[in-house]
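Worked example 3 (structure in, sequence out).
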Protein backbone atom coordinates (compact mmCIF):
# COMPACT_ATOMS: atom_id res chain seq x y z
CA UNK A 1 0.00 0.00 0.00
CA UNK A 2 1.39 3.42 -1.00
CA UNK A 3 1.53 6.28 1.47
CA UNK A 4 -1.16 8.14 -0.47
CA UNK A 5 -3.60 5.22 -0.27
CA UNK A 6 -2.75 4.84 3.41
CA UNK A 7 -3.70 8.49 3.95
CA UNK A 8 -7.01 7.94 2.13
CA UNK A 9 -7.66 4.97 4.40
CA UNK A 10 -6.92 7.09 7.48
CA UNK A 11 -9.21 9.91 6.34
CA UNK A 12 -12.03 7.45 5.60
CA UNK A 13 -11.59 5.71 8.96
CA UNK A 14 -11.87 8.90 11.02
CA UNK A 15 -14.81 10.06 8.89
CA UNK A 16 -16.73 6.90 9.80
CA UNK A 17 -15.61 6.16 13.35
CA UNK A 18 -14.51 9.59 14.54
CA UNK A 19 -17.97 10.66 15.78
CA UNK A 20 -18.20 7.64 18.08
CA UNK A 21 -14.81 8.49 19.59
CA UNK A 22 -15.83 12.11 20.09
CA UNK A 23 -19.11 11.10 21.74
CA UNK A 24 -17.08 8.99 24.18
CA UNK A 25 -14.85 12.01 24.88
CA UNK A 26 -17.93 14.18 25.46
CA UNK A 27 -19.01 11.93 28.32
CA UNK A 28 -15.65 12.43 30.05
CA UNK A 29 -14.62 16.00 29.10
CA UNK A 30 -16.64 18.83 30.62
CA UNK A 31 -14.94 21.72 28.78
CA UNK A 32 -17.01 22.59 25.65
CA UNK A 33 -14.05 24.41 24.08
CA UNK A 34 -11.97 21.24 24.24
CA UNK A 35 -14.75 19.29 22.50
CA UNK A 36 -15.16 22.02 19.88
CA UNK A 37 -11.45 21.77 19.16
CA UNK A 38 -11.88 18.02 18.83
CA UNK A 39 -14.71 18.21 16.30
CA UNK A 40 -13.13 21.02 14.27
CA UNK A 41 -9.70 19.41 14.42
CA UNK A 42 -11.05 16.12 13.08
CA UNK A 43 -12.93 17.86 10.27
CA UNK A 44 -9.88 19.88 9.24
CA UNK A 45 -7.56 16.88 9.49
CA UNK A 46 -9.86 14.68 7.39
CA UNK A 47 -10.13 17.25 4.61
CA UNK A 48 -6.42 18.11 4.66
CA UNK A 49 -5.38 14.44 4.64
CA UNK A 50 -7.65 13.59 1.72
CA UNK A 51 -6.38 16.65 -0.17
CA UNK A 52 -2.74 15.69 0.45
CA UNK A 53 -3.40 12.10 -0.62
CA UNK A 54 -5.06 13.29 -3.83
CA UNK A 55 -2.08 15.47 -4.73
CA UNK A 56 0.30 12.59 -4.01
CA UNK A 57 -1.71 10.22 -6.17
CA UNK A 58 -1.81 12.64 -9.08
CA UNK A 59 1.92 13.30 -8.90
CA UNK A 60 3.54 10.11 -7.59
CA UNK A 61 7.26 10.40 -7.03
CA UNK A 62 7.36 13.99 -8.27
CA UNK A 63 8.96 16.85 -6.37
CA UNK A 64 7.72 19.63 -8.59
CA UNK A 65 4.82 21.92 -7.76
CA UNK A 66 1.39 20.78 -8.88
CA UNK A 67 -0.46 23.11 -11.23
CA UNK A 68 -3.60 23.10 -13.37
CA UNK A 69 -1.66 22.36 -16.57
CA UNK A 70 -0.42 19.11 -14.94
CA UNK A 71 -4.02 18.00 -14.49
CA UNK A 72 -4.73 18.81 -18.13
CA UNK A 73 -1.64 16.79 -19.18
CA UNK A 74 -2.76 13.75 -17.19
CA UNK A 75 -6.27 13.94 -18.65
CA UNK A 76 -4.82 14.17 -22.16
CA UNK A 77 -2.73 11.04 -21.63
CA UNK A 78 -5.75 9.17 -20.28
CA UNK A 79 -7.57 9.95 -23.53
CA UNK A 80 -4.87 8.18 -25.58
CA UNK A 81 -5.74 4.50 -26.13
CA UNK A 82 -2.06 3.56 -26.39
CA UNK A 83 -1.26 4.85 -22.86
CA UNK A 84 -3.33 3.30 -20.07
CA UNK A 85 -3.56 5.41 -16.96
CA UNK A 86 -1.77 4.39 -13.80
CA UNK A 87 -3.98 3.20 -10.97
CA UNK A 88 -2.70 5.96 -8.68
CA UNK A 89 -3.54 8.61 -11.27
CA UNK A 90 -7.04 7.23 -11.75
CA UNK A 91 -7.72 7.18 -8.01
CA UNK A 92 -6.18 10.65 -7.67
CA UNK A 93 -8.35 12.05 -10.45
CA UNK A 94 -11.48 10.61 -8.84
CA UNK A 95 -10.40 12.20 -5.56
CA UNK A 96 -9.76 15.56 -7.26
CA UNK A 97 -13.18 15.46 -8.93
CA UNK A 98 -14.77 14.62 -5.58
CA UNK A 99 -12.98 17.50 -3.87
CA UNK A 100 -14.05 19.96 -6.58
CA UNK A 101 -17.66 18.76 -6.31
CA UNK A 102 -17.63 19.13 -2.53
CA UNK A 103 -16.09 22.59 -2.81
CA UNK A 104 -18.75 23.69 -5.30
CA UNK A 105 -21.60 22.38 -3.14
CA UNK A 106 -20.08 23.88 0.01
CA UNK A 107 -19.70 27.28 -1.67
CA UNK A 108 -23.24 27.21 -3.04
CA UNK A 109 -24.75 26.13 0.29
CA UNK A 110 -22.84 28.71 2.32
CA UNK A 111 -23.76 31.45 -0.15
CA UNK A 112 -27.45 30.58 0.12
CA UNK A 113 -27.26 30.43 3.92
CA UNK A 114 -25.40 33.75 4.06
CA UNK A 115 -28.04 35.38 1.87
CA UNK A 116 -30.90 34.11 4.04
CA UNK A 117 -29.07 35.17 7.20
CA UNK A 118 -28.43 38.61 5.70
CA UNK A 119 -32.13 39.03 4.90
CA UNK A 120 -33.12 38.00 8.43
CA UNK A 121 -30.51 40.32 9.94
CA UNK A 122 -31.64 43.19 7.72
CA UNK A 123 -35.29 42.68 8.67
CA UNK A 124 -34.47 42.68 12.37
CA UNK A 125 -32.18 45.69 11.97
CA UNK A 126 -34.99 47.61 10.26
CA UNK A 127 -37.30 46.84 13.15
CA UNK A 128 -34.63 47.99 15.59
CA UNK A 129 -34.23 51.24 13.66
CA UNK A 130 -37.98 51.85 13.77
CA UNK A 131 -37.89 51.23 17.52
CA UNK A 132 -35.29 53.96 17.99
CA UNK A 133 -32.01 52.16 17.27
CA UNK A 134 -29.51 50.62 19.68
CA UNK A 135 -28.76 52.43 22.93
CA UNK A 136 -25.64 54.46 23.51
CA UNK A 137 -23.95 51.44 25.11
CA UNK A 138 -23.85 49.82 21.67
CA UNK A 139 -25.62 46.57 22.66
CA UNK A 140 -28.41 46.03 20.16
CA UNK A 141 -31.48 44.42 21.75
CA UNK A 142 -34.73 44.21 19.80
CA UNK A 143 -37.98 43.66 21.70
CA UNK A 144 -40.79 42.16 19.64
CA UNK A 145 -44.41 41.64 20.74
CA UNK A 146 -45.02 37.95 21.38
CA UNK A 147 -46.93 36.11 24.14
CA UNK A 148 -44.29 33.34 24.41
CA UNK A 149 -40.91 34.04 26.02
CA UNK A 150 -38.34 33.96 23.20
CA UNK A 151 -34.67 34.87 23.05
CA UNK A 152 -32.26 34.44 20.18
CA UNK A 153 -29.35 36.20 18.55
CA UNK A 154 -28.72 37.11 14.92
CA UNK A 155 -25.05 36.93 13.93
CA UNK A 156 -23.04 39.22 11.69
CA UNK A 157 -20.80 42.26 11.96
CA UNK A 158 -23.72 44.07 13.60
CA UNK A 159 -25.34 41.19 15.40
CA UNK A 160 -28.23 41.74 17.73
CA UNK A 161 -30.23 39.99 20.41
CA UNK A 162 -33.99 39.54 19.99
CA UNK A 163 -36.33 39.18 22.98
CA UNK A 164 -40.07 38.65 23.06
CA UNK A 165 -42.13 41.11 25.09
CA UNK A 166 -43.19 38.23 27.36
CA UNK A 167 -39.59 37.94 28.52
CA UNK A 168 -39.89 41.34 30.15
CA UNK A 169 -42.01 39.80 32.90
CA UNK A 170 -39.27 37.41 33.98
CA UNK A 171 -37.17 37.92 37.12
CA UNK A 172 -34.21 40.21 36.60
CA UNK A 173 -31.62 37.45 37.15
CA UNK A 174 -33.17 35.25 34.44
CA UNK A 175 -33.25 38.12 31.98
CA UNK A 176 -29.63 38.93 32.76
CA UNK A 177 -28.67 35.29 32.17
CA UNK A 178 -30.43 35.27 28.80
CA UNK A 179 -28.67 38.46 27.68
CA UNK A 180 -25.31 37.13 28.85
CA UNK A 181 -25.90 33.87 26.98
CA UNK A 182 -26.73 35.60 23.71
CA UNK A 183 -23.85 38.07 24.08
CA UNK A 184 -21.48 35.11 24.32
CA UNK A 185 -22.82 33.78 20.99
CA UNK A 186 -22.23 37.12 19.31
CA UNK A 187 -18.86 37.80 20.92
CA UNK A 188 -17.37 34.43 19.97
CA UNK A 189 -18.88 34.29 16.45
CA UNK A 190 -20.75 31.05 17.09
CA UNK A 191 -23.11 31.72 14.18
CA UNK A 192 -20.21 31.53 11.69
CA UNK A 193 -18.98 28.30 13.23
CA UNK A 194 -22.39 26.63 13.07
CA UNK A 195 -22.96 27.90 9.54
CA UNK A 196 -19.64 26.48 8.34
CA UNK A 197 -20.24 22.96 9.68
CA UNK A 198 -23.82 22.98 8.40
CA UNK A 199 -22.55 23.98 4.96
CA UNK A 200 -20.04 21.15 5.07
CA UNK A 201 -22.75 18.69 6.11
CA UNK A 202 -24.88 19.79 3.15
CA UNK A 203 -21.90 19.34 0.81
CA UNK A 204 -20.88 15.92 2.18
CA UNK A 205 -24.02 14.36 3.69
CA UNK A 206 -22.88 10.75 3.26
CA UNK A 207 -20.04 10.88 5.80
CA UNK A 208 -21.00 10.32 9.47
CA UNK A 209 -18.45 12.90 10.65
CA UNK A 210 -19.80 15.75 8.54
CA UNK A 211 -23.43 14.65 8.97
CA UNK A 212 -23.25 14.61 12.77
CA UNK A 213 -21.03 17.67 13.19
CA UNK A 214 -23.79 20.35 13.03
CA UNK A 215 -25.85 18.99 15.93
CA UNK A 216 -22.71 18.40 18.00
CA UNK A 217 -21.31 21.88 17.34
CA UNK A 218 -24.68 23.50 18.06
CA UNK A 219 -24.81 21.77 21.43
CA UNK A 220 -21.21 22.69 22.25
CA UNK A 221 -21.63 26.39 21.43
CA UNK A 222 -24.75 26.42 23.60
CA UNK A 223 -22.77 24.85 26.45
CA UNK A 224 -20.06 27.43 25.91
CA UNK A 225 -22.60 30.27 26.08
CA UNK A 226 -24.19 28.67 29.16
CA UNK A 227 -20.79 28.69 30.87
CA UNK A 228 -20.36 32.39 30.09
CA UNK A 229 -23.81 33.14 31.54
CA UNK A 230 -23.10 31.07 34.66
CA UNK A 231 -19.91 33.04 35.33
CA UNK A 232 -21.91 36.28 35.28
CA UNK A 233 -25.26 35.26 36.76
CA UNK A 234 -24.84 31.91 38.50
CA UNK A 235 -26.09 28.40 37.59
CA UNK A 236 -29.53 28.81 39.15
CA UNK A 237 -30.47 31.78 36.97
CA UNK A 238 -29.28 29.99 33.83
CA UNK A 239 -31.16 26.83 34.76
CA UNK A 240 -34.40 28.74 35.38
CA UNK A 241 -33.99 30.60 32.09
CA UNK A 242 -33.47 27.34 30.19
CA UNK A 243 -36.65 25.90 31.66
CA UNK A 244 -38.58 29.07 30.83
CA UNK A 245 -37.40 29.36 27.21
CA UNK A 246 -37.38 25.64 26.33
CA UNK A 247 -39.09 24.98 23.01
CA UNK A 248 -39.41 28.65 22.02
CA UNK A 249 -39.39 29.29 18.24
CA UNK A 250 -36.54 31.06 16.48
CA UNK A 251 -35.31 31.64 12.90
CA UNK A 252 -33.14 28.85 11.39
CA UNK A 253 -30.09 31.10 11.11
CA UNK A 254 -30.32 32.24 14.75
CA UNK A 255 -28.99 30.74 17.97
CA UNK A 256 -31.65 30.48 20.65
CA UNK A 257 -31.40 30.49 24.42
CA UNK A 258 -32.94 27.00 24.50
CA UNK A 259 -32.27 25.83 20.99
CA UNK A 260 -30.36 22.56 21.46
CA UNK A 261 -30.51 19.58 23.84
CA UNK A 262 -31.93 21.37 26.87
CA UNK A 263 -31.89 18.17 28.95
CA UNK A 264 -28.13 17.68 28.44
CA UNK A 265 -27.44 21.33 29.23
CA UNK A 266 -29.46 21.13 32.44
CA UNK A 267 -27.55 18.01 33.42
CA UNK A 268 -24.24 19.79 32.84
CA UNK A 269 -25.41 22.71 34.97
CA UNK A 270 -26.07 20.39 37.92
CA UNK A 271 -22.42 19.43 38.10
CA UNK A 272 -21.03 22.80 37.10
CA UNK A 273 -17.86 23.98 38.81
CA UNK A 274 -16.42 27.45 38.17
CA UNK A 275 -13.11 27.85 36.31
CA UNK A 276 -13.40 24.48 34.59
CA UNK A 277 -11.06 25.44 31.79
CA UNK A 278 -8.71 22.60 31.06
CA UNK A 279 -5.77 23.60 28.90
CA UNK A 280 -4.40 20.06 28.91
CA UNK A 281 -7.67 18.60 27.60
CA UNK A 282 -7.87 21.25 24.89
CA UNK A 283 -4.30 20.65 23.73
CA UNK A 284 -4.70 16.87 23.89
CA UNK A 285 -7.95 16.76 21.90
CA UNK A 286 -6.73 19.24 19.30
CA UNK A 287 -3.46 17.37 18.80
CA UNK A 288 -5.05 13.92 18.78
CA UNK A 289 -7.73 14.79 16.25
CA UNK A 290 -5.34 16.64 13.93
CA UNK A 291 -2.98 13.64 13.90
CA UNK A 292 -5.68 10.93 13.82
CA UNK A 293 -5.97 10.42 10.02
CA UNK A 294 -2.20 10.23 9.59
CA UNK A 295 -1.74 7.82 12.52
CA UNK A 296 -4.62 5.58 11.43
CA UNK A 297 -3.47 5.63 7.81
CA UNK A 298 0.14 4.74 8.62
CA UNK A 299 -1.04 1.97 10.97
CA UNK A 300 -3.29 0.58 8.21
CA UNK A 301 -0.38 0.65 5.77
CA UNK A 302 1.88 -1.22 8.18
CA UNK A 303 -0.76 -3.87 8.85
CA UNK A 304 -1.38 -4.25 5.12
CA UNK A 305 2.33 -4.87 4.51
CA UNK A 306 2.70 -7.47 7.27
Amino acid sequence: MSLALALVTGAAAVAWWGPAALRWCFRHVADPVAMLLGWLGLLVAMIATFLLATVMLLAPGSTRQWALHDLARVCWHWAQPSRPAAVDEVVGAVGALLLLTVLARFTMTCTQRAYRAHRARRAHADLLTLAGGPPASGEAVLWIPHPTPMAYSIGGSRGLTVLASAAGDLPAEQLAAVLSHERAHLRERHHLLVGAVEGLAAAVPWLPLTRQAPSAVRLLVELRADAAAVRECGPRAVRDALLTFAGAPHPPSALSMAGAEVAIRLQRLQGYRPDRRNGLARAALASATLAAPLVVGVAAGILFCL
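Notes: The chain has a mean pLDDT of 81. The radius of gyration is 24 Å.
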